[in-house]
Amino acid sequence: QKEVEQNSGPLSVPEGAIASLNCTYSDRGSQSFFWYRQYSGKSPELIMFIYSNGDKEDGRFTAQLNKASQYVSLLIRDSQPSDSATYLCAVNSNQFYFGTGTSLTVIP
Amino acid sequence: GAVVSQHPSRVICKSGTSVKIECRSLDFQATTMFWYRQFPKQSLMLMATSNEGSKATYEQGVEKDKFLINHASLTLSTLTVTSAHPEDSSFYICSAPTSGPTDTQYFGPGTRLTVL
């Protein structure tokens, strides 16, 4: 079983819709959780981190963490074509583990 | 957020030559840095963990004699691809974690290596 699992997609949403990206992890002792965005040909950039159960909002982005279910998600409200990228989930459980990423396409 | 730089951003070299890539943490110290490789349309693959003051730790299947890592200081790690071949052409990315409760990793901008 992989440490961090994501649906590879591709996920397509129309412009203005909510994009929902999901991630599960295997280590219950994991302490912090991260979402990165990677545009084609570029390196990953940090969008958000979360380490407490519940929601954390930053602009159009909301990270949601449910430690009981070992599940973390990223919601993107009012999706824009510029949000089209691969989104990587990462989990820190004494070592960083990255998911394989979910490809998101926002259709104008 | 913290800043990690990489140099060069792009390099083209002939087969058989060696290429050195530098990774610097600009505004924080990093006792550990990570080196990744990414082929087109594929996931990040962790190659090795660079440790300041000690030997790097390589992932399974990564040749340590081919990919030499030196963590010279708390802000600099270098990756040298020795005797590069066309199959080594890839996007090489370093990252460094900040210290503190979140231990956030920040990525450098990456180095695109093309071996002719």
TL;DR?
Chain A has 108 residues and is an all-beta fold. In chain A, 0% of the residues lie in helices and 56% in strands. By secondary structure, chain B is mainly β.
Your description of this structure?
The complex is a heterodimer of chains A (108) and B (116). Chain A is an all-beta fold and 108 residues long. Chain A has strands at 4-6, 11-14, 19-25, 32-38, 45-50, 54-58, 61-66, 71-76, 85-92, 96-98, 102-107. In chain A, strands 2, 4, 5, 9, 10 and 11 form a six-stranded mixed β-sheet that branches. A five-stranded antiparallel β-sheet of chain A has the order 1-3-8-7-6, with no helix packed on it. In chain A, strand 4 (32-38) and strand 5 (45-50) form a beta hairpin. The radius of gyration of chain A is 13 Å and the shape is globular. The mean pLDDT of chain A is 94. By secondary structure, chain B is an all-beta fold. The model of chain B has no long low-confidence stretch (mean pLDDT 93). The interface between A and B is medium-sized, with 18 and 18 residues.
Describe the structure using short key phrases:
heterodimer; A: 108 residues; mainly beta; 11 strands; globular; B: 116 residues; 7-stranded mixed beta sheet
Order of helices and strands of chain A: EEEEEEEEEEE
Q: Whole-number average pLDDT of chain A?
A: 94
Low-confidence stretches of chain B: none
Q: What is the percent of helical residues of chain A?
A: under 10%
Q: Which outline of chain B best applies? A: globular
Layout of strands and helices, then pairs:
The complex is a heterodimer of chains A (108) and B (116).
Chain A: E1 4-6, E2 11-14, E3 19-25, E4 32-38, E5 45-50, E6 54-58, E7 61-66, E8 71-76, E9 85-92, E10 96-98, E11 102-107
Chain B: E1 4-7, E2 10-13, E3 19-25, E4 32-38, E5 45-51, E6 57-58, E7 67-73, E8 76-81, E9 90-97, E10 105-107, E11 111-115
Parallel strand pairs in B: 2-11
Antiparallel strand pairs in B: 1-3, 3-8, 4-5, 4-9, 5-6, 7-8, 9-10, 9-11
